[in-house]
User: Fold this.
Amino acid sequence: MVSTEAISDADETLQFELRTNVARLSDAQRTEVLGHPGFGQHFTDHMARVSWTADQGWYDARVEPYGPLPLDPSAAVLHYAQEIFEGLKAYRWDDGSVRCFRPEVNAERFARSAERMALPVLPERVFLDALSALVAADEPWVPSGGENSLYLRPFMFASEAFLGVRAARTVDFLVIASPAGPYFPSGVKPVSIWLARQLTRAGRGGMGAAKTGGNYASSLLAQGEAADHGCQQVVFLDEAEGRWVEELGGMNVFFVHADGTLVTPALTGTILEGVTRRSVL
Ligand SMILES: *Cc1c(COP(=O)(O)O)cnc(C)c1O
Assistant:
């Protein structure tokens, strides 16, 4: 039996072990993919991973070959959606080095999302080390030039094989990476936004402020409604009065008034606090 303090000390010093992918793509194959990366379609040779159980805490930090996860059909995440994620990018600078923009803010948000979804909090140091370890292993996958980047997707989910409704006692944390081209391939153009009148995204006391898949699942119907009306995005109103603009399905919103004032909805618990939002403010 170890004390909680001993566990958290150990967590802070987890070392990522590299288990090299012997079947990784050749330089030519990788160059081919990097020529037309698209978004979220191609993945690098490795993934970072840390396991957790209620008894052991975080353990077995490793970078291993990218590939399918064996998952028990009763894994809690498949039934009760106990999961969270993050999204950020690694960029290659002109001097050849690779950097992320304020990854510690993503680490903090990940910890807050974990608390809301009754998942174990991953120490911020381990979150950042996982990003570094994966980017180091797959460094040739970081594109250079223009707005190209390597999109990093950290996520955590309830992998315990158990249908009872309670916080899972077995959890997995992973980071996968996917090369990405510019967000607007044909240049920045205005998009049309559909105002959802019936459907809302999050309510008071709910999980709107957590970066969790369920918020995306609940936005898809409205996103489809938007597409049916020729709009690229949907904007949601508050659930209580249906009067206040909150945010889009997957991004925060700002208004620029004619007098130059910048306005964005306050964080009331139903809005996801964006790193972009915080940085702009
Ligand atoms: C991730 C997310 C944001 C903000 O993203 P950043 O990249 O951190 O600016 C805003 N809204 C929703 C619903 C999100 O999931």
Summary: Confidence is low (pLDDT under 50) at residues 1-9. The chain is about 25% helix and 25% strand. The first strand starts at residue 17 and ends at 18. Residues 237 and 243 are 6 Å apart (CA to CA).
